[in-house]
Design brief:
32% of the residues lie in helices and 22% in strands. By secondary structure, it is α/β, with parallel strands linked by helices. A 7-stranded mixed beta sheet has the order 1-2-10-15-14-11-12, sandwiched between helices. A 6-stranded mixed beta sheet has the order 4-3-9-7-5-6, sandwiched between helices. Helix 1 crosses helix 2 and helix 5 crosses helix 6. 54% of the residues are buried.
């Protein structure tokens, strides 16, 4: 017995490609001063979002994006069959407390910074499989909550190495539907864990790059496509170091990614914003995709995008015990 919608080793081709009918992004002030500022739906004036803690602020970013995405899809929460969501905090509390405010069946996800594309892939499977008419996928992250959990409290003033990245403060949400007008998810390639021994928790780009390249290569092999099929291939948050490594891996294996490959961590900030290697976090690929990439598709500047969520699946406990950083990447083909 075979699964008729699987092609190759890791890819699913959808018979009835789900359409993205609603999308929203809410970001913090730093992101609101970056080069993509005109693409975001909501920009907060401060990182506390008029609340008493950064964790509560992150939740408000998530609630804002989720509710706005549903409204922009001309639906109500009661029309949504599943809410697939995650974030970077222990027990994915930002997603869970956001789900508490919405009367939608909830599935919590943890793929670190790959979670947005993990949610899009699984949501598309639910819809194409006939298990749902509408699915809401969403993510959030916050610079200060991530620093407190994974590295050091910002109040401690620890100097960050140049390889470190700036966690995007914000949230994104997208509504997938069985019918409608808009960009469609035609394929999903679920990645494998790839760990080439990077143990530096401040160098996430290097840790995630091998997994990103592995998924790109597998997607192209499974679909029989070459990189030029896509107007843009974009990874989630590899930033400067990881982006260069993916290109180098491509050159080594005869895959030219020099013409149409970029990274969300390079797009969201400019060089004057002191973010070292670039952007990271669940919201990095989330807000860049929901805001910039899909808006450019709607405007006709892109017809075919291969987007990859990239994640470093480590924890402070594992790092303190000398463990290396496992990487993951999930790819979704979005075609207009």
């Amino acid at each position: 017995m075979t699964a008729p919608k699987r092609i190759g080793k890791q890819t699913v081709a959808f018979d009835n490609p789900p359409v993205i009918i609603g999308r929203a992004s809410a970001v913090g002030p730093k992101e609101g001063k970056g080069p993509l500022k005109d693409y975001f739906d909501f920009i907060a004036e401060d990182t506390y979002f008029n609340d008493t803690s950064w964790e509560k602020a992150e939740r408000k970013f998530f609630q804002t994006a989720a509710k706005l995405a549903i409204e922009k899809a001309n639906l109500t929460p009661n029309d949504i069959h599943y809410f697939l969501a995650g974030d970077l905090l222990n027990q994915i509390i930002s997603a869970t407390y956001t789900a508490r405010s919405l009367p939608i069946p909830y599935v919590g996800l943890y793929g670190a910074c790959s979670t947005m594309y993990e949610g899009l892939a699984l949501g598309a499977m639910l819809i194409d499989g006939g298990f749902a008419d509408h699915v809401l996928a969403g993510v959030s992250s916050h610079y200060s909550t991530a620093e407190r959990q994974f590295r050091f409290p910002t109040e401690q003033g620890v100097q960050r190495p140049l390889s470190s990245q700036w966690t995007v403060t914000g949230a994104a949400a997208m509504v997938l539907a069985a019918q409608g007008q808009g960009p469609r998810i035609t394929h999903a390639t679920i990645g494998k864990i790839v760990d080439l021994g990077v143990a530096d928790a401040t160098d996430m780009g290097a840790a995630m790059a091998p997994a990103a390249f592995d998924t790109i290569k597998q997607h192209l092999e499974d679909t029989g496509r070459d990189p030029g099929y896509y107007d843009l291939i974009v990874t989630g948050d590899l930033a400067k170091i990881g982006h260069r490594l993916v290109q180098a891996l491509g050159e080594k294996q005869g895959l030219d990614l020099s013409k149409n490959y970029t990274d969300c961590g390079l797009l969201i900030y400019d060089t004057s914003q002191d973010v070292h290697a670039g952007g990271s976090g669940c919201a990095c690929s989330g807000v860049v995709t929901a805001g910039f990439l899909l808006e450019e598709m709607q405007a006709g500047r892109y017809q075919k995008i291969l987007g990859l969520g990239t994640g470093a699946l480590h924890s402070p406990i594992a790092s303190q015990q000398g463990e290396t950083v496992p990487g993951i990447a999930h790819a979704v083909a979005i075609e207009f």
